[in-house]
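Q: Give me the 3D complex with NAP.
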Amino acid sequence: MSDNEITGTTAVVTGASRGFGRGIATALSKAGAQVVGVARDRAPLEELRAELGESFTAVSADAADPTVAGQLTDAYRPGILVLNAGATPLPRPIQHHTWQTFSRNWDTDVAHVFHWTREALLAPLAPGSAVIALSSGAALFGSPLSGGYAGAKATIRWLTSYAAAESDRGGLGIRFVSVLPQLTPATALGAAYVDAYAAREGMDTAAFLARSGPAVTPEHVGRAIVDLTGPGYDQEAYLLTAAGLRPLPGPSAPPGATQPE
Ligand SMILES: NC(=O)c1ccc[n+]([C@@H]2O[C@H](COP(=O)([O-])OP(=O)(O)OC[C@H]3O[C@@H](n4cnc5c(N)ncnc54)[C@H](OP(=O)(O)O)[C@@H]3O)[C@@H](O)[C@H]2O)c1
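A: Here is the predicted complex, encoded as C-alpha cells.
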C-alpha cells in the first residue's frame, strides 16, 4: 500500500507501547492509518495516544491470550496486522536457564503469532490485507544467551510462511511476511542483550557497538513496516539492518520435496 492506500486503513499493532512497536504505530499513524495499539501496561499506551491523537486507539490487553486475538480481530478486521509483541528473555548461558525461562518467548512471542495468524486466516481478513510478524536476526545466527529465543523466532518465520501458503491455497489474498531485525541497543530488550554479549566477550558496550556498525532504530522499523505494505515487497521474509530491508530466500521446501518429521 502507498501512503495514499494506507489512509483510513485500520492497523492493529501488538506491543505498540515501547521500542519497535511504538515506532511502527507512529509510522503507520503518520502514513494515515487508524492504529489500534495493544500492550499490557496502559500508561505508555496513553502517552502514545496523547502524542498521536485520534488516529491511535489504546488497548490494554495480553496479546498472547487467544480470546484477545479473537475479540480484536472480530472488532477491527485490520487491513494491516503487525505481530510485534515480545518478551525479554533472561540473559544467561543455557545451563543457567530453567525450562520456564528457556520457553518464555514461546509462551508470548510464538503463542501470540499463532493465535492471531489463525484468526487472520479464519476470519478471513479482507483480500489485500497484510500480516507482518516480527522474527529476529537471531533466527538465522543464534542467540546463545537467550534460551529458546532464537528457536522461537525461527518458528515465527516458519509459521508466517505456512500461513502465506494457506492464504495462497485458499485464494484469500492475505499477504503474510516476517521481518528479521538485527540486534540493536535502541530498545529495552535489545539494550539488555547488547550489554550481555559485550560482557561475554570482555568488551565494553561502546566497543561492541562500534564493531556492529550502525544500529537499527524504532524509526527504521516503522518505515520498513510501512514500506512492506506497499508494492515491490513480495518475499515472505526480510532481514532488517540500518541499511534497510533485504529479502531472504523462503524457508519452504522445494515443491514436491518430502521432509522427514
Ligand atoms: N530490540 C532488538 O534488538 C530486536 C531484534 C530483533 C527482533 N526483535 C523483536 O522485535 C519485537 C519488539 O522488540 P522491542 O525490542 O521493541 O521490545 P521492547 O522494547 O521490550 O517492547 C516490547 C513491547 O511488547 C509488549 N508486550 C510484551 N509482552 C506482551 C503481551 N503478552 N501482550 C501485549 N504486549 C506485550 C510490551 O508492552 P507491555 O510489557 O506493557 O505488554 C512492549 O510494548 C519483539 O518481538 C522482539 O523479539 C527485537
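A quick observation: DSSP finds eleven helices and eight strands in the chain.
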